[in-house]
């Protein structure tokens, strides 16, 4: 288990994907310091190479340095976008595997969560520094603090008409649907058998979403789940010839033949309420007529 943070611990903020400036993360830096943490800002913050936070070599080195430096107790990815998969196969995880630490982020960072899961380690799917100033983000930030400092976690979600009731336990895995689709067949691909899978996405065409769900089903990633958690499918797009079905209706179509519990509308994804989830940790999912409960313990001290 990864040790919980304590006041005085040092964390690093880096960018593995799209570029970001220092002013954009100053609020987050202030919050982390108010938690009693030392903050080290990576060379990728403020760096620019076309779309990216520096070229592949710089982003790889920044990530590698943060993984290898034993004085750094957590790595916070500043933002998502695209770019993590361009460098992940060149990362040496050997020191990180011997001396694990928290790695935090979501969206494009799903690539790192999945890869870390193949190593048998936990990571944190959570709000990133770019989004700290977003109105309504306070509960998301607080949930991240609770994870990092090893406090108990328990989340609820309102009932949804598409929910399938039931109770299940399993390791929590998942993240951004588009990224999980992209990782299929790579060294970062994960097994979902017997696990609680959570999915979220942003700005996809509805027919793209349908295609990805078909692929997940055809590749066996839906058949043997313990349970399924559907988060926000934000800002989905139609084509000139409408696909007609909503994102949730598409997911319902491709998962309706299975019997495990499914919840919709869980607060995870590209919205201000994006609660921190510990990927790789055993969790309990209860879906009832009253709503959804997701529960597991905090980090081991």
From TrEMBL:
LD-carboxypeptidase N-terminal domain span: 11-126
Entry-linked InterPro entries: Carboxypeptidase_A_C_sf, Class_I_gatase-like, LdcA_N, Peptidase_S66_N, Peptidase_S66C, S66_fam
Gene Ontology terms for molecular function: carboxypeptidase activity; serine-type peptidase activity
Active site: 107 (nucleophile), 200 (charge relay system), 270 (charge relay system)
Occurrences of domain LD-carboxypeptidase C-terminal (ranges): 169-283
Record bears the keyword Phosphoprotein: no
Keywords of this entry: Carboxypeptidase, Hydrolase, Protease, Serine protease
CDD domains named among the record's database cross-references: Peptidase_S66 (cd07025)
Biological processes, Gene Ontology terms: proteolysis
Transmembrane segments: none
Domain of life according to the entry: Bacteria
Family: Belongs to the peptidase S66 family.
Annotated protein name in UniProt: LD-carboxypeptidase
Annotated source species: Pontibacter oryzae
């Amino acid at each position: 288990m990864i040790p919980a943070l304590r006041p005085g611990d040092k964390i690093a903020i880096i960018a593995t994907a799209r570029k970001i400036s220092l002013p954009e993360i100053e609020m987050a830096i202030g919050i982390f310091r108010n938690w009693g943490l030392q903050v080290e800002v990576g060379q990728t913050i403020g760096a620019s190479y076309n779309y990216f936070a520096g070229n592949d070599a710089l982003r790889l080195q920044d990530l590698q340095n943060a993984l290898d430096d034993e004085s750094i107790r957590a790595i916070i990815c500043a933002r998502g976008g695209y770019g993590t998969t361009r460098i992940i196969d060149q990362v040496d995880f050997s020191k990180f595997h011997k001396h694990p630490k928290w790695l935090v982020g979501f969206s494009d960072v799903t690539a790192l969560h999945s890869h870390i899961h193949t190593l048998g380690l936990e990571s944190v799917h959570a709000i990133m520094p770019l989004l700290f100033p977003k109105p309504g983000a306070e509960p998301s930030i607080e949930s991240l603090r609770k994870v990092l400092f090893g406090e108990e976690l328990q989340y609820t979600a309102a009932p949804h008409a598409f929910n399938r009731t039931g109770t299940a336990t399993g390791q929590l895995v998942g993240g951004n649907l588009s990224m999980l689709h992209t990782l299929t067949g790579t060294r970062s691909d994960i097994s979902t058998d017997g696990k609680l899978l959570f999915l979220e996405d942003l700005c996809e065409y509805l027919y793209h979403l349908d295609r990805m769900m078909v692929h997940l089903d055809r590749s066996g990633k839906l058949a043997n789940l313990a349970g399924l958690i559907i988060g926000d499918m934000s800002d989905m797009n139609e084509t000139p010839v409408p696909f007609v079905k909503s994102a949730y209706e598409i997911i319902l179509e491709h998962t309706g033949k299975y019997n495990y519990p499914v919840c919709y509308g869980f607060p995870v994804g590209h919205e201000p309420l994006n609660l921190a989830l510990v990927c790789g940790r055993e969790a309990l999912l209860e879906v009832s007529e009253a709503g959804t409960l997701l529960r597991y313990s905090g980090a081991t001290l």
